Amino acid sequence: MPRQVELYEEMSRVSARMVEAAQAGDWDRLIELESGVSRLRDQLMAMPEEVDAGAADLARKRTLIERILDDDAEIRRHTEPWMEQVRHLLGDNQRLRELQRAYAAATDPGP
Questions:
Q1: What is the domain partition of the chain in residue ranges?
Q2: Which residue ranges in the chain fall short of pLDDT 50?
Q3: In angstroms, rounded to a whole number, what is the distance separating the alpha carbons of residues 39 and 61?
Q4: Which CATH superfamily is domain 4-107 in?
């Protein structure tokens, strides 16, 4: 079974690849990588706390967590504008459907 610090190291490697995918606008790859991070996170959550972890491991975990959080901020910097475009597009489609329904109801001669 891997140690916690090893899982954090793998999460950091995957989150760095997620940054690259976000910068490239490769949303499918980003989603795939995020699934990997989720699996690693679930493994971490299922592990008992390492009570015998030394100071070096704790410092390494802290550094890795900070890097992962920095990567997350960078990913959000690239995904939030894209998500806003998607929300706008979906909102426009919803308004179009409502307009079409209203127009259909207004022009329907009825029974």
A1: 4-107
A2: none
A3: 18
A4: Flagellar protein flit. (1.20.58.380)
